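dumping this here so i dont lose it
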């Protein structure tokens, strides 16, 4: 062995990078979901330059996270598999699916290459198929399972978000397809939309039961619970896009009243959560004084805010609900502010990590 191989200056950084990769949270792709939907929201606010800048940033984040994820799978396989088997962490992997779908929608809506959006749809659909049935099969067959109040949480609703992300990108891509593939894409999007809402009802029943019949400590009220609203927001977006696509598919046209009503049901369900989530945040931080520390799931607050802005705008277009016109810009600005705060905190922690590495030299 050469002398340089055992020196502290080389060993310490190697351990630091290894720990960074080994500890990569399954929900890390939440930053891509959040950045993508904020980009679309600010485009709707009339800020195209900022929206395209966020698209470029998101593409870099997406590629970088894939590199880290693959490295973790190859170098820290045991920890990766342990996360897949963990009831609290495994649903975080659905952020990979949702991030791929949101980035594809972002490309399509902001003038990016259609081929990239099409490739991302295939990737999103494939990941959804593998992770949906893989994760639920693993959690079903795992012999040692936690109690309901220890195993269920808002992060489980990422399975709904992932499902609807496939539907949303599919509806957006459909107009550029020939008649046969277009009808197939619309039918698949319709089926996924309905299945996603049904999955929401199943999971939300357990979450609501956990809320009201088990003791809930302030530290248990993680940011992931904002996905209670975000999952219904993206379901609203998928439904609103299907309403607008009805003239392109006869079977959508025949179901038009049902799709409109069910889309409004999704929006109303998501809207109901907002005041309660705000009250619970006040209880957590102002009354129970839980320290405000960085958590990768804070991006799970940004995404629902941005998605609510985008879905409400599309709902007003689909149903002509001008009475709620003020909501999209309000929530769009809130999402942008939340994104900036989360980015500032992330950059600060990255700087502190870099300083810590240099100090170990």
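and the seq i came up w/
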């Amino acid at each position: 062995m050469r002398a340089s191989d055992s020196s502290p200056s080389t060993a310490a950084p190697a351990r630091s990078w290894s720990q960074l990769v080994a500890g990569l949270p399954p929900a890390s792709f939440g930053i891509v979901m959040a950045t993508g939907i904020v980009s679309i929201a600010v485009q709707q606010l009339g800020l195209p330059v900022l929206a395209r800048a966020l698209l470029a940033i998101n593409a870099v984040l997406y590629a970088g996270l894939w590199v880290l994820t693959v490295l973790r799978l190859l170098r820290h396989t045991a920890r990766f598999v342990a996360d897949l088997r963990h009831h609290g962490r495994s649903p975080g992997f659905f952020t990979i699916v949702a991030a791929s779908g949101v980035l594809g929608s972002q490309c399509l809506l902001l003038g990016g290459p259609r081929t990239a959006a099409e490739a991302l749809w295939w990737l999103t659909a494939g990941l959804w198929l593998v992770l949906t049935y893989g994760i639920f099969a693993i959690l079903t067959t795992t012999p040692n399972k936690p109690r309901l109040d220890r195993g269920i949480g808002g992060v489980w609703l990422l399975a709904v978000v992932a499902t609807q992300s496939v539907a949303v990108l599919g509806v957006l891509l459909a107009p550029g397809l020939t008649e046969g593939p277009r009808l197939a894409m619309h039918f698949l999007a319709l089926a996924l939309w309905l299945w996603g809402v049904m999955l929401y009802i199943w999971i939300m029943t357990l979450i609501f039961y956990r809320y009201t019949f088990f003791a809930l400590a302030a530290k248990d009220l993680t940011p992931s619970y904002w996905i209670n609203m975000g999952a219904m927001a993206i379901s609203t977006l998928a439904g609103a896009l299907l309403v607008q696509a009805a003239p392109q598919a006869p079977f959508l046209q025949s179901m038009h009243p049902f799709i409109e009503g069910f889309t409004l049901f999704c929006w109303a369900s998501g809207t109901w959560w907002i005041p309660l989530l705000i009250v619970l945040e006040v209880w957590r931080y102002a009354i129970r004084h839980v320290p405000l520390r960085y958590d990768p799931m804070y991006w799970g607050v940004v995404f629902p805010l941005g998605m609510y802005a985008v879905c409400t705008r599309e709902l007003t277009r689909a149903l002509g609900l001008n009475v709620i016109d003020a909501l999209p810009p309000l929530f769009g600005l809130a999402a942008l502010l939340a994104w900036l705060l989360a980015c500032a905190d992330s950059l600060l922690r990255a700087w502190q990590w870099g300083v810590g590495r240099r100090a170990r030299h």
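The two ends are 20 Å apart (CA to CA).
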